[in-house]
Each structure stands twice: as C-alpha cells, then as structure tokens.
Amino acid sequence: MIELGTPRPLAAGATTEDPAEITASHMLRLLNTAPPRLAPSARARIAARIERRTVVVGRASGWRLWAVGAVGALILFAGSAVGAAVGVTGFVPVRQVVERWLGFRDPIGAPARDQRRGPAMPSPSPSPVTIEPIPEPSPAPAPVHGARVHLSPKPAPAEMPEPVVAESRLLGGAIEALRQDRAPRRALRVLDRYDHRYPKGVLAPEATAARIDALLALGRKGRALARLEAAPLARLPRTVEMQLLRGELRAARGNPAGAALDFDAVLAAPSATGIVVERALYGRSSCRSRLGDETGARADLEEYLRRFPRGRFAASAGHALSD
Amino acid sequence: MSIAVAMKSERDPLLDASPAAVDIDSLYRTYAVQVERWVMRLGGPTIDAEDVVHDVFMVVQRRLPEWRAQAKVSTWLYRITERVVHRQRRKQRITRWLRGLTGDFAGDIPTPRPTPVEELERKQASRTVYAALEGVERKQREVLVLFEIEGLSGEEIATLTGTKLATVWVQLHRARARFLERLRAMQERGEAS
C-alpha cells in the first residue's frame, strides 16, 4: 500500500508557484476564519417547527409512510378507474378511510363526506366561507396576512355554480388552518388537495398566495420565492405586497438586481402606501448599495428618513448614512 | 470553539445515554449548532441552511426509534446530514439546470450599509471555492471540505464518515487534484482570481 502520510492543509500556504494553488490557499484561509452560523431567529424557527412535528406526526419511518402512500394511491387509482368503468361510487369510503388514516382531514366543520366527493358532487349547503382581500398588508414579512376568513354562515349567490362553492370551501379550509389554527403544514396539505382537484380552479391565484403565506410561516423562504418566481404576479391577489415580498426574498437570496426591479415597481404603484413604501425604500437602498450605486442608495435612505423618521429601519438607515 | 477542537477535547455528549433517554429535544439542544455547521460547510453558500437543518432533524426524529446506540451519535447525525445535504444539492443542480441559472447566492436580508471589503472578499472566496467543488466527486468533495475548510484531522474524518484513514488520504489527494484543476480552468475563464 502506498503511504501518503499526513498532508498539510492548503490553507497553511501554497507549496508551489501554481497560481491555482496560491488562490486556493488564500481562499480557504478566508473561509477558515469565519465559521458559518445561522441567525438566532432561524434557530428558533427550526426548533418551533421540530416541536410542531413532534406532536403531529409520530415516529413512523420514512419508507413506511412512502409505502402506505403508494399503496393508498394505487387503491385510489384502481378504485376510481373501476368505479368509473362500472358507474358506481362504492370506492369513496375506501378513499375516505385512506385519507383519514394519512391525516388528510378537512379542517372546516362542513360535512366531510361532501367535501371529499370533489367538485363533481353536489353540495347540500351554501358556502360558509368568503375571502376578501385586505388592501393594506401587515408590516412584517410574516405570512399571516392578506385575506380574511368569515366563518359565519352566509348564503352563496344563487348563480354560483356548485364546483365553485366546493372549491371555495376547500380553499377556505386551507386559509382557516393557516390563519386561525396557525397550522401552515396542515394548510399546505389542504392546498395540495386543492391543486390536485382544481388544477385550473377559478381561485387558483388565491391558493397560490395562501401557499406562499404558508411556506413563509414555515420559514421555507427558498420555496416561497420559487413559487413567486413561477407565478404571474399580476394575477395574484395583493399584487403589490407579493411583489414586495418577492423583492425582499430575492434580496435575501443575493439577487439585488432582480430585487431592485421589484422594489422599483412597488414604489411606482399608485396603491403602495405606508409600510409597503417603507419596506420597498429600505430594500431598494440595500440593493443599490450592493450593486455599487452608492448615490442611489444614499438618496433612498435620505428619502426613507424624511418620510419615516420613526420607521422600523430608521436607526439602521441613520447609521448607514453616517458611515 | 471549532468542531475539530470540540471533537478532540470532548466525548460524544450522549455517548453513554441509553436509547430510551435520547429524544429529539436533547439531540437538537446538543447537536443543532454542529449540524448547522456541517450543513453550511458541506452545502456551501447556495444551500438553504435553515430548511436543510430542519430536514435533518425531521429525518433524525423519524429514525430515532431505529437508533440503538451502536454508533456514536455524532457519526450517526453526520451521516444523516451528509445525505440530506447531498439530496438538496442534487435538487439545486436540477433546478439550476431547468432555469438556466448559473448560480445563486445565500445570505440574510442585507443591510444597506456598505459591505466591508473583508466580508465581500470572503463571500467571493466562498462562491469560488464551492463553484470549483461542484466538479469534484461526492465522497472526495466531502473529505476535502472537512479537511480543508472545517479543519478536521484525517482520523476525525475517518470516524465521522466511517472510512479508513488511508482511504481518507487517497480521497483527499484526488479531491485536491480535481479541485485545483477546476480552479485553474476557472482562472483561465476569468471566473476566479
């Protein structure tokens, strides 16, 4: 066997005149000096997410869950195919049992059987849920905002077709899980069902917005940004707020150029006021600074301090200007 | 204190604990910082460390009933971490390929304060190093990261990865050659200076 001995770390210095080795040595030394750490807030979010999972899931191993899911899917598929072929609906109880076992419970109090039948089944009661956009978003980039859920019984318009009633009920369940129960993971499961049942639903933009909120509530910023990048912003509810969020997430992910475009659009929007403008101005100053436009960054910070002298970023802005 | 130092000076904190006494809370309290650091070192600047650390502990929670204290907890955790990071990097590569992106940069929401030169330089170094590491085979890359960036000794790497010391040195030797070759190519293209 060849004895290679204990090698010397590259960071300790290059042993040859090879430019690549010299560069590698310098760069590795830089990396060695700064051990990476997550922000305390990120740690707190992880701990909270783990704690929630402890209660919800139990300790089944991964492959078992996958196996159960695969068998369940097979049963549902076979059941639906045979049922459709012979014109019977006797497989619905099987699906209910599997869904209940896997934890796909509808979160609202309407009769479960009707909700699980999907859009083709008639609904015996009018929709108890309406979703109203709130024009002013909440200050923090936290996801729990933007839509209000009324749970009091309210008759659906007579002309509303039944599938829309069922669709809004399912989406309402997701939003209720998100905002009232503070259960974003459950909201995501309901949204998965919604997407499966209504891939081209009339409320699809609202469902996308709710999904983004749920992902952010779980701290999954990368996935939320991916959704925002993929969705046509103009079709989403709370368009300006969604664009602001996308800008902030892009900035956090090291895309200051893309983020600056979003902040520009937000600041140009006539409906943007108050906290939206405050966040967009601060965000744009950050991006301009990172892009090397110090004049623009200073102008934004000065504008920020002029308009929001007691804003939440006022201290940072003042500090940045004094540098 | 670096992990390398911690590993040299301390025993595995839960080494003597009975499997029944080890739960997800105690594991998270004891090892979260270590796992976080492995994730960020192995994953590089483009990894969503928060999501990945969470995913690691989800796997730990699921597998906890199977753990019988036959291995050191830190070794067991490291293996899970490495697999989760590897899966995440594979997903990232596919996503980048699908979107036609050349890269992504991690970091928290930045302050508008001008970036200090050292910090900027460190970030650039991190991006260049991890970009060069993209072309290195998985096991070799792992050894190079643990030795060159994390500062672990060959013995520590062998324990952590469950391989022989000689294998570690061979992998490190090959990883360095491939890494420098990639860096050289990047320098020729003007992507690294």
What's this model, at a glance?
The complex is a heterodimer of chains A (323) and B (193). Chain A has 323 residues and is an all-alpha fold. Chain A is built from 14 helices and two strands, in the order H-H-H-H-H-E-E-H-H-H-H-H-H-H-H-H.
Describe what you observe in this structure.
The complex is a heterodimer of chains A (323) and B (193). Chain A has a two-stranded antiparallel sheet with strand order 1-2. Helix content of chain A is 61%, strand content 2%. Chain A is extended, with a radius of gyration of 26 Å. Chain A has 323 residues and is an all-alpha fold. In chain A, helix 7 (184-197) runs antiparallel to helix 8 (204-217). With 193 residues, chain B is an all-alpha fold. In chain B, 67% of the residues lie in helices and 0% in strands. Chain B has helices at 3-9, 24-43, 49-63, 73-99, 117-133, 138-149, 154-161, 165-188. Chain B is globular. The two termini of chain B are 31 Å apart. Classes of the chains: A mainly alpha (323), B mainly alpha (193). Chains A and B meet through helix 1, helix 2, helix 9, helix 10 and helix 12 of A and helix 2, helix 3, helix 5, helix 6 and helix 8 of B.
